Amino acid sequence: MITGAASGMGRGTAIRFAAEGASVVIADLNEEGGAAAVRECRENGGMAIFQKTDVAAESDVKALIARAVKEFGKLDIIYNNAGLGGAAGLIEGTPVEDWDRTFAVLTRGVFLGIKHAIPEMRKAGGGSIISTASIAGLSGGYASHAYSAAKAAVVNLTRSVALEVAKYRIRVNCICPGGINTPIFNIFSDDPNQIEQMLAGCPLKRAGHPEDIANTALFLASDESEFITGQALNVDGGLTAGPSTLFDNTDWEKFGNRYLGPSFTTRRN
Ligand SMILES: NC(=O)c1ccc[n+]([C@@H]2O[C@H](COP(=O)([O-])OP(=O)(O)OC[C@H]3O[C@@H](n4cnc5c(N)ncnc54)[C@H](O)[C@@H]3O)[C@@H](O)[C@H]2O)c1
Predict the structure, then answer these.
(1) What does DSSP assign to residue 245?
(2) Does the beta carbon of 234 sit less than 6 angstroms from any atom of ligand 1?
Protein backbone atom coordinates (compact mmCIF):
# COMPACT_ATOMS: atom_id res chain seq x y z
CA MET A 1 0.00 0.00 0.00
CA ILE A 2 1.45 3.32 -1.06
CA THR A 3 0.03 6.72 -0.17
CA GLY A 4 0.62 9.70 -2.43
CA ALA A 5 1.02 7.25 -5.30
CA ALA A 6 -0.86 9.28 -7.89
CA SER A 7 2.23 11.37 -8.58
CA GLY A 8 5.97 11.72 -8.22
CA MET A 9 7.99 9.26 -6.19
CA GLY A 10 4.94 7.39 -4.86
CA ARG A 11 3.77 6.72 -8.41
CA GLY A 12 7.28 5.70 -9.48
CA THR A 13 7.46 3.32 -6.54
CA ALA A 14 4.04 1.82 -7.30
CA ILE A 15 5.09 1.09 -10.88
CA ARG A 16 8.38 -0.45 -9.74
CA PHE A 17 6.68 -2.61 -7.09
CA ALA A 18 4.13 -3.77 -9.67
CA ALA A 19 6.94 -4.72 -12.04
CA GLU A 20 8.40 -6.84 -9.21
CA GLY A 21 5.09 -8.69 -8.96
CA ALA A 22 3.49 -6.87 -6.03
CA SER A 23 -0.22 -6.25 -5.68
CA VAL A 24 -0.36 -2.51 -5.07
CA VAL A 25 -2.99 -0.33 -3.43
CA ILE A 26 -2.61 3.22 -4.64
CA ALA A 27 -3.96 5.79 -2.19
CA ASP A 28 -4.25 9.48 -2.95
CA LEU A 29 -6.58 12.46 -3.04
CA ASN A 30 -5.96 12.79 -6.78
CA GLU A 31 -8.35 10.43 -8.59
CA GLU A 32 -7.15 11.15 -12.13
CA GLY A 33 -3.49 10.58 -11.25
CA GLY A 34 -4.49 7.50 -9.25
CA ALA A 35 -6.29 5.97 -12.23
CA ALA A 36 -3.28 6.63 -14.47
CA ALA A 37 -0.96 5.05 -11.89
CA VAL A 38 -3.18 1.94 -11.75
CA ARG A 39 -2.97 1.63 -15.55
CA GLU A 40 0.82 1.95 -15.48
CA CYS A 41 1.13 -0.68 -12.72
CA ARG A 42 -1.01 -3.11 -14.71
CA GLU A 43 1.01 -2.45 -17.85
CA ASN A 44 4.08 -3.37 -15.83
CA GLY A 45 2.61 -6.73 -14.96
CA GLY A 46 1.33 -6.12 -11.45
CA MET A 47 -2.07 -5.96 -9.78
CA ALA A 48 -3.18 -2.49 -8.71
CA ILE A 49 -6.25 -0.74 -7.36
CA PHE A 50 -6.95 2.86 -6.39
CA GLN A 51 -8.60 4.08 -3.23
CA LYS A 52 -9.33 7.77 -2.81
CA THR A 53 -7.85 8.66 0.56
CA ASP A 54 -7.08 11.68 2.66
CA VAL A 55 -4.21 10.44 4.83
CA ALA A 56 -5.06 13.04 7.47
CA ALA A 57 -8.47 11.45 8.08
CA GLU A 58 -8.46 8.39 10.35
CA SER A 59 -11.65 6.98 8.85
CA ASP A 60 -10.10 7.12 5.36
CA VAL A 61 -6.93 5.36 6.48
CA LYS A 62 -8.90 2.64 8.27
CA ALA A 63 -11.01 2.09 5.15
CA LEU A 64 -7.87 1.96 3.02
CA ILE A 65 -6.22 -0.76 5.09
CA ALA A 66 -9.48 -2.72 5.19
CA ARG A 67 -9.74 -2.53 1.38
CA ALA A 68 -6.13 -3.70 0.93
CA VAL A 69 -6.76 -6.74 3.11
CA LYS A 70 -10.12 -7.47 1.50
CA GLU A 71 -8.72 -7.31 -2.03
CA PHE A 72 -5.35 -8.97 -1.53
CA GLY A 73 -5.71 -11.08 1.65
CA LYS A 74 -3.03 -9.42 3.82
CA LEU A 75 -0.80 -6.41 4.20
CA ASP A 76 2.98 -6.88 3.93
CA ILE A 77 4.22 -3.40 3.09
CA ILE A 78 2.97 0.12 3.69
CA TYR A 79 4.73 3.14 2.28
CA ASN A 80 3.48 6.35 3.93
CA ASN A 81 4.58 8.82 1.30
CA ALA A 82 1.78 11.36 0.69
CA GLY A 83 2.90 14.91 1.16
CA LEU A 84 2.91 18.53 0.13
CA GLY A 85 4.92 21.67 0.75
CA GLY A 86 2.53 22.98 3.41
CA ALA A 87 2.95 26.31 5.19
CA ALA A 88 5.69 28.30 3.50
CA GLY A 89 7.01 31.71 4.52
CA LEU A 90 8.43 33.57 7.45
CA ILE A 91 7.64 32.30 10.95
CA GLU A 92 6.01 35.52 12.14
CA GLY A 93 3.44 35.36 9.36
CA THR A 94 2.69 31.63 9.56
CA PRO A 95 -1.04 31.10 10.25
CA VAL A 96 -1.84 28.52 12.92
CA GLU A 97 -4.30 26.82 10.55
CA ASP A 98 -1.58 26.32 7.92
CA TRP A 99 0.80 24.97 10.56
CA ASP A 100 -1.85 22.47 11.67
CA ARG A 101 -2.80 21.48 8.10
CA THR A 102 0.84 20.78 7.32
CA PHE A 103 1.22 18.55 10.37
CA ALA A 104 -2.11 16.83 9.67
CA VAL A 105 -0.85 15.53 6.32
CA LEU A 106 2.86 15.06 6.94
CA THR A 107 2.88 13.79 10.51
CA ARG A 108 -0.63 12.67 11.44
CA GLY A 109 -0.90 10.95 8.04
CA VAL A 110 2.20 8.87 8.74
CA PHE A 111 1.07 8.13 12.29
CA LEU A 112 -2.31 6.89 11.06
CA GLY A 113 -0.76 4.70 8.36
CA ILE A 114 1.56 3.11 10.91
CA LYS A 115 -1.13 2.75 13.58
CA HIS A 116 -3.58 0.93 11.34
CA ALA A 117 -1.04 -1.16 9.44
CA ILE A 118 0.45 -2.77 12.55
CA PRO A 119 -2.52 -4.98 13.53
CA GLU A 120 -2.66 -6.42 9.98
CA MET A 121 1.10 -6.95 9.87
CA ARG A 122 0.97 -8.71 13.23
CA LYS A 123 -1.63 -11.09 11.80
CA ALA A 124 0.59 -11.63 8.75
CA GLY A 125 3.59 -12.46 10.97
CA GLY A 126 5.63 -9.36 10.07
CA GLY A 127 6.00 -6.59 7.58
CA SER A 128 7.85 -3.53 6.42
CA ILE A 129 6.70 0.00 7.17
CA ILE A 130 8.36 2.75 5.14
CA SER A 131 7.65 6.47 5.32
CA THR A 132 8.89 9.47 3.41
CA ALA A 133 10.58 11.99 5.67
CA SER A 134 13.01 14.48 4.06
CA ILE A 135 16.49 15.83 4.38
CA ALA A 136 14.56 18.96 5.48
CA GLY A 137 13.73 16.98 8.63
CA LEU A 138 17.41 16.62 9.49
CA SER A 139 18.31 20.30 9.52
CA GLY A 140 16.54 23.65 9.43
CA GLY A 141 14.97 24.90 6.22
CA TYR A 142 14.60 28.56 5.32
CA ALA A 143 10.93 29.56 5.33
CA SER A 144 9.76 25.96 5.60
CA HIS A 145 9.37 25.78 9.37
CA ALA A 146 6.28 23.60 9.53
CA TYR A 147 7.58 21.25 6.82
CA SER A 148 10.99 20.80 8.48
CA ALA A 149 9.46 20.26 11.91
CA ALA A 150 6.84 17.81 10.59
CA LYS A 151 9.45 15.77 8.69
CA ALA A 152 11.73 15.69 11.76
CA ALA A 153 8.78 14.20 13.62
CA VAL A 154 8.53 11.45 10.98
CA VAL A 155 12.18 10.53 11.55
CA ASN A 156 11.72 10.14 15.30
CA LEU A 157 8.35 8.41 15.01
CA THR A 158 10.10 5.88 12.77
CA ARG A 159 12.67 5.18 15.47
CA SER A 160 10.27 4.94 18.40
CA VAL A 161 7.81 2.64 16.60
CA ALA A 162 10.68 0.47 15.33
CA LEU A 163 11.65 -0.24 18.94
CA GLU A 164 8.12 -1.23 19.85
CA VAL A 165 7.23 -3.53 16.97
CA ALA A 166 10.54 -5.29 16.31
CA LYS A 167 9.23 -8.22 18.40
CA TYR A 168 6.49 -8.76 15.81
CA ARG A 169 9.05 -8.91 12.97
CA ILE A 170 7.80 -5.57 11.71
CA ARG A 171 10.52 -3.25 10.49
CA VAL A 172 10.05 0.52 10.38
CA ASN A 173 12.27 2.80 8.32
CA CYS A 174 12.03 6.12 6.54
CA ILE A 175 13.57 7.61 3.45
CA CYS A 176 14.93 11.16 3.50
CA PRO A 177 14.86 12.33 -0.12
CA GLY A 178 16.52 15.51 -1.31
CA GLY A 179 16.24 17.16 -4.69
CA ILE A 180 13.99 14.65 -6.46
CA ASN A 181 12.39 16.06 -9.62
CA THR A 182 8.66 15.62 -9.06
CA PRO A 183 5.57 17.81 -9.49
CA ILE A 184 6.07 19.10 -5.92
CA PHE A 185 8.48 21.62 -7.48
CA ASN A 186 5.92 22.89 -10.01
CA ILE A 187 5.55 26.03 -7.91
CA PHE A 188 9.01 27.12 -9.06
CA SER A 189 8.62 26.58 -12.80
CA ASP A 190 6.45 24.95 -15.48
CA ASP A 191 9.59 23.80 -17.22
CA PRO A 192 10.83 20.39 -15.99
CA ASN A 193 14.24 21.06 -17.53
CA GLN A 194 14.64 24.19 -15.47
CA ILE A 195 13.77 22.24 -12.33
CA GLU A 196 16.18 19.52 -13.41
CA GLN A 197 18.97 22.12 -13.54
CA MET A 198 17.91 23.71 -10.25
CA LEU A 199 18.17 20.35 -8.46
CA ALA A 200 21.53 19.38 -9.95
CA GLY A 201 23.58 21.25 -7.33
CA CYS A 202 24.32 18.16 -5.23
CA PRO A 203 27.74 16.43 -5.22
CA LEU A 204 26.50 13.87 -7.79
CA LYS A 205 25.58 16.79 -10.07
CA ARG A 206 22.16 15.64 -11.18
CA ALA A 207 18.60 15.89 -10.01
CA GLY A 208 17.14 12.87 -8.29
CA HIS A 209 14.29 11.02 -10.00
CA PRO A 210 11.36 9.00 -8.68
CA GLU A 211 13.20 5.80 -9.70
CA ASP A 212 15.95 6.62 -7.16
CA ILE A 213 13.36 6.55 -4.40
CA ALA A 214 11.56 3.53 -5.88
CA ASN A 215 14.82 1.55 -5.74
CA THR A 216 15.35 2.52 -2.11
CA ALA A 217 11.78 1.69 -1.11
CA LEU A 218 12.08 -1.65 -2.90
CA PHE A 219 15.18 -2.46 -0.88
CA LEU A 220 13.54 -1.46 2.41
CA ALA A 221 10.42 -3.46 1.53
CA SER A 222 12.35 -6.59 0.67
CA ASP A 223 14.10 -9.25 2.76
CA GLU A 224 17.41 -7.85 1.48
CA SER A 225 17.04 -5.28 4.28
CA GLU A 226 15.81 -7.71 6.96
CA PHE A 227 18.39 -6.55 9.54
CA ILE A 228 17.59 -2.85 9.09
CA THR A 229 15.02 -1.10 11.26
CA GLY A 230 14.57 2.30 12.88
CA GLN A 231 16.68 4.03 10.25
CA ALA A 232 16.41 7.20 8.20
CA LEU A 233 18.11 6.67 4.86
CA ASN A 234 19.19 9.78 2.94
CA VAL A 235 18.73 9.62 -0.83
CA ASP A 236 19.97 13.01 -1.93
CA GLY A 237 22.92 12.80 -4.31
CA GLY A 238 25.24 13.54 -1.40
CA LEU A 239 23.62 16.82 -0.30
CA THR A 240 23.86 15.87 3.37
CA ALA A 241 27.33 14.29 3.14
CA GLY A 242 28.85 17.50 4.45
CA PRO A 243 28.68 21.26 4.16
CA SER A 244 30.56 23.09 1.44
CA THR A 245 33.64 24.64 2.99
CA LEU A 246 36.24 27.18 2.09
CA PHE A 247 38.35 24.23 0.88
CA ASP A 248 35.93 23.55 -2.02
CA ASN A 249 37.56 26.22 -4.16
CA THR A 250 41.13 25.05 -3.57
CA ASP A 251 42.79 23.52 -6.61
CA TRP A 252 43.82 20.31 -4.90
CA GLU A 253 45.60 18.94 -8.00
CA LYS A 254 47.89 21.95 -7.88
CA PHE A 255 48.14 22.10 -4.06
CA GLY A 256 49.22 18.46 -3.98
CA ASN A 257 49.25 16.19 -0.95
CA ARG A 258 50.76 17.71 2.13
CA TYR A 259 50.84 16.96 5.81
CA LEU A 260 49.45 19.91 7.70
CA GLY A 261 51.31 19.99 11.01
CA PRO A 262 50.72 22.16 14.06
CA SER A 263 49.87 25.66 12.89
CA PHE A 264 52.92 27.27 14.54
CA THR A 265 55.18 25.18 12.30
CA THR A 266 53.45 25.98 9.00
CA ARG A 267 54.48 28.88 6.80
CA ARG A 268 52.15 30.73 4.42
CA ASN A 269 54.62 30.42 1.46
N1 LIG B 1 10.64 15.86 -4.29
C2 LIG B 1 11.54 16.00 -3.33
O3 LIG B 1 12.69 16.41 -3.58
C4 LIG B 1 11.21 15.63 -1.91
C5 LIG B 1 12.21 15.76 -0.96
C6 LIG B 1 11.95 15.38 0.35
C7 LIG B 1 10.72 14.85 0.68
N8 LIG B 1 9.74 14.76 -0.27
C9 LIG B 1 8.48 14.13 0.14
O10 LIG B 1 8.21 13.07 -0.74
C11 LIG B 1 6.83 12.74 -0.70
C12 LIG B 1 6.31 12.60 -2.11
O13 LIG B 1 6.38 13.86 -2.77
P14 LIG B 1 6.70 14.06 -4.31
O15 LIG B 1 7.94 14.85 -4.38
O16 LIG B 1 6.60 12.76 -5.02
O17 LIG B 1 5.50 15.08 -4.69
P18 LIG B 1 4.14 14.88 -5.52
O19 LIG B 1 3.38 16.13 -5.31
O20 LIG B 1 4.45 14.47 -6.90
O21 LIG B 1 3.41 13.66 -4.79
C22 LIG B 1 2.76 13.80 -3.56
C23 LIG B 1 1.42 13.07 -3.63
O24 LIG B 1 0.80 13.14 -2.33
C25 LIG B 1 -0.59 13.35 -2.54
N26 LIG B 1 -1.22 13.95 -1.34
C27 LIG B 1 -1.04 15.19 -0.84
N28 LIG B 1 -1.80 15.36 0.24
C29 LIG B 1 -2.49 14.19 0.43
C30 LIG B 1 -3.44 13.76 1.39
N31 LIG B 1 -3.87 14.54 2.39
N32 LIG B 1 -3.92 12.49 1.28
C33 LIG B 1 -3.51 11.68 0.27
N34 LIG B 1 -2.62 12.05 -0.67
C35 LIG B 1 -2.13 13.30 -0.60
C36 LIG B 1 -0.65 14.29 -3.75
O37 LIG B 1 -1.91 14.30 -4.35
C38 LIG B 1 0.45 13.71 -4.62
O39 LIG B 1 -0.06 12.72 -5.49
C40 LIG B 1 6.19 13.85 0.12
O41 LIG B 1 5.97 13.38 1.43
C42 LIG B 1 7.22 14.96 0.11
O43 LIG B 1 7.11 15.80 1.21
C44 LIG B 1 9.96 15.15 -1.55
Answers:
(1) -
(2) no
Q: Is the pLDDT of residue 269 over 80?
A: no
Residue 256 resides in a domain: no
Per residue in 38-85, pLDDT tens? 999 999 989 999 999 999 999 999 999 999 999 999 999 999 999 999
117-128: pLDDT as tens digits: 999 999 999 999
Q: Is residue 207 part of a domain?
A: yes
53 within ligand 1 shell (Cβ under 6 A): yes
Q: Could you read off the pLDDT of 171-211 as tens digits, one per residue?
A: 999 999 999 999 999 988 988 899 999 999 999 999 999 99
* Residue 243 burial by Cβ neighbours in a 10 Å radius (0-12, 13-18, 19+): exposed
Write down the pTM of the prediction.
0.96
Mutate to test the pocket of ligand 1, among 30, 84, 107, 216 (most ligand atoms within 8 A of CB): 84
Instruction: Judge if the beta carbon of residue 177 lies within 6 A of ligand 1.
Output: yes
Please tell me the distance between residue 178's alpha carbon and the centre of ligand 1 in angstroms: 12
Count helices and strands (H / E) in the chain: 9, 7
How many domains in the chain?
A: 1
Residue 259 in any domain: the answer is no
Q: Hey, which residues are catalytic here?
A: 147
**CA distance from start to end of the chain:** 63
